[in-house]
Design goal:
Low-confidence stretches: 1-33, 36-40
Strand order of the largest sheet: 1-2-3-4
Order of helices and strands: HHHHHHHEEEE
Distance between the termini: 30 Å
Number of strands: 4
Largest sheet: 4 strands, antiparallel
């Protein structure tokens, strides 16, 4: 939202400069049009906007679920929010038994039918989990996730 305001401000400044130049002589208008600083400012805002893009919630849920299904404790642990890491374990090793046990029950698990509702930096994710054979395993309804440092993390602990 702030990036959009920044882009609009840059465009507004450029428009005002061009309009104000119309009231003076043609050389002043030409000088303003040749001034590239406004264009560079707009390009900078667009570049920052692209850099701050956030991965999709669906991708986060899919990757998290696959980590459990493949017994990848390091990856699964990385999808816990800071708040949940304190409650679950300070390291992936302390989380390993949970992940390995889940993988033994649902080997090759995948997420499907993923839907979500986002409210600022919070999301309620609803999805189904299927084991590697395609059999339904579990359903998660409105599981809390949070956006931390540009990454969607599970906040259900």
């Amino acid at each position: 939202m702030n990036m959009q305001r920044g882009l609009m401000s840059g465009i507004s400044v450029a428009a005002l400069l061009l309009l104000s130049a119309c009231g003076s002589d043609a050389n002043t208008a030409l000088d303003v049009a040749e001034d590239t600083s406004v264009v560079e400012e707009i390009q900078e805002v667009e570049t920052v906007e692209e850099a701050e893009s956030v991965p999709s919630p669906e991708a986060a849920v899919a990757e998290f679920t696959a980590a459990f299904g493949n017994a990848d404790a390091n990856l699964a642990w990385s999808f816990n929010s800071d708040r949940c890491r304190e409650g679950v374990s300070d390291t992936p090793d302390g989380y390993r038994d949970v992940v390995v046990g889940w993988a033994e029950t649902y080997p090759g698990a995948t997420a499907a039918n993923i839907s979500f509702v986002i409210d600022d930096d919070r999301a309620a994710m609803t999805y189904d989990v299927y084991d590697g054979a395609g059999e339904f395993a579990e359903e998660y309804i409105a599981q809390p996730w949070v956006l931390e440092d540009g990454k969607w993390l599970r906040d259900h602990c």
